[in-house]
Known about the structure:
Number of helices: 16
Shape: elongated
Strand order of the largest sheet: 1-2-3-4-7-6-5
Distance between the termini: 57 Å
Number of domains: 3
Structural class: alpha/beta
Helix content: 40-55%
Strand content: 5-15%
Largest sheet: 7 strands, mixed
Amino acid sequence: MSKPFLRNTSEISLLENETGQSLRIISSNLTPYVMNNNNDYLNRCISTVPNGKDELRKMLDDVRKIIFTKEDLIRWFHKIKEDAVNETDMIIVSFKASSMSENQIDFERIGFLSGIYEESRKYLNLMIAIEPLDENKAHYSVLDRLEELDNLYINTDNIPGYYCIQQDSKIHKHKYQIKNLDQYWNDYLSIKEKHHVLEGFGDTRYLLDQFHFEFKWELIKIKPLSNIKQYLDYHLKKYIGSPIDFLNHIEFRIMPELDSVSGSDYPIYQLILKEWLKSKRNGLIYKEKDFLFDSIISASATFLDNVFEYKKMSDENKYNIVIRDFLNHSFRHKKWHAKDQSMGGTTDSQSSSNKAGISFRDLIIINENMHHISAVECLRLYSVPKEAEKDSVIKSHLIKIFRNEPIGLSPLFILIYCETKEFTTTWKKYIDYISQIDFGKYQNITCEDNYQISPSRANLKVAKVKHIRETNVIEVYHIFINMNP
């Protein structure tokens, strides 16, 4: 059994002994009373802390009957902690508004609430401490891109980089801006003249790290928590680079390090950031997916318009080059690019002709940042086998497109040059055939076999098939071109 790699939880001990003689001060309103009374009020509080812990465990048994997900349980623990603090505050506020004497404050109830709070915090710590590293790690190309941006910001003297900061101390700071660290940095550098310092002192990468810390610190101070999304929206809108870069920075840099400043509250911040990232990524991705799909359909339709000329080539690779050129014409204003015969992924054969197991992709799509975002696998089809169990050109191409894309890209495209005389009949057989294929660990879950395109075209058909890859859904579009219209 492989060892799970855990997050950095050095501040949490699962072997901590409970003394039974301590009280967590969950309300600053309580401090004067328990600190200035020869321990009488403190002892009254401590006497009921165990009862509060017992009550939390009983409540947990009940709540598990109606809560089924980890995320819901995390929210419940945080709600219990918040309620305990609020009720403790109300006990003190009610006392101040009454004519009661101090010793009539319900310190036993306060200790009970503290016990509930402490036990909730303990369970949250347990959940954090045993939580493995996120399996959806950033691809190395994403990390390389972020490192490249760091160097750009340093070299262009734009150290804040990702964040909108207060430019002038005379101008009122927007509530979501990050404070300017120029004076802090000047004071820091002044030490060099007064003391002997190590080589490398004053490296601006340290200042860059300080801005990252300032951003995290401002984030965890935001109340109510729902305003965190407004905070992130503000900096995303102000960011002068690609939105994708900012989202990657938040997901793969800021979010994993929040636990170091948020402690046991980390899970709730993690949930908020994940919700925000999902909404923003979907908004960007859907727009680009639509553009990519429309471009490939347009290239296929343009190919179909001159199909009789292209058939004279009698070579699939030449067909692919034509499609590639049409795509690059569509992509040029977005600075995307389609490349053909690109190496990547694996193949079953280990001959020297395929570079010892490294296969060729027919077409890959790269974006303006030179990131690989999709791929097109092409094949000429002369017939459809009757039995899906048998190996075939179709099956090998469909499985190949997954093995050739180790990143787990979506969507992917299969472009089929249909060479049969019965286009519609072949299409129906093809759909039936792919629905029976065993894709192994890339199983298909749905097939939309009459995917609508606008305008519709008689000699161009599209199916959208969804596959499961690990825990992700991968969309594969099958585009059928009638080579004998």
